[in-house]
TrEMBL record:
It comes from Enterococcus avium ATCC 14025. The keyword Zinc does not apply. This is PTS EIIA type-4 domain-containing protein. The keyword Transferase applies. Transmembrane segments: none annotated. Keywords: Transferase. InterPro entries: Bacterial_PTS_sugar_comp, PTS_EIIA_man-typ, PTS_EIIA_man-typ_sf.
Length: 139
């Protein structure tokens, strides 16, 4: 099975996962882990548990920010297991695109990630630079 795991500091990953499911449906192969949300949490132990529970799955781990402690803990594990893909810089467009690609195509994991990254990047628009004649009545 191919599975997405959104990970973050605090509750961002939970919100991201719930929003994705609201938009595209209740896919069973997306989950989340919110670090630092429980007292006396052992992140290393939790990550090891997640890896063990997903043994045999192709796991797409999407972290909130590169260089953050959550991402860094996963960085220690990606060389040990080729079935783990780690991407930093979670955003809604990327997660939705990746979820659709891994469920609807036979595309290799790295190819799906690169396509989803391209799609997400194209979605960044600085709206102030749009030269449009829009009035308040249009909204």
């Amino acid at each position: 099975m191919r599975k997405i795991l959104c990970i973050s500091h605090g509750n961002l990953a939970k919100g991201m996962t719930e929003t994705v499911k609201m938009i595209v449906g209740d896919f069973k192969n997306i989950d989340y882990y919110c670090a630092y949300s429980k007292e006396d949490e052992d992140i290393e132990r939790e990550i090891n548990r997640i890896i063990e529970e997903n043994h045999g799955n192709e796991l797409f781990v999407i972290s909130d920010i590169f260089g953050g402690s959550v991402n860094n803990e996963w960085m220690k594990r990606i060389n040990n297991d080729n079935s783990i893909h780690l991407v930093a810089g979670m955003n809604l467009a990327f997660v939705i695109e990746l979820l659709v690609l891994i469920n609807d195509s036979q595309m290799k994991g790295d190819e799906a990630i690169l396509r989803a990254m391209k799609t997400a990047t194209e979605g960044f628009i600085y709206c102030n630079q749009l030269k449009m004649n829009i009035s308040e009545d249009d909204f």
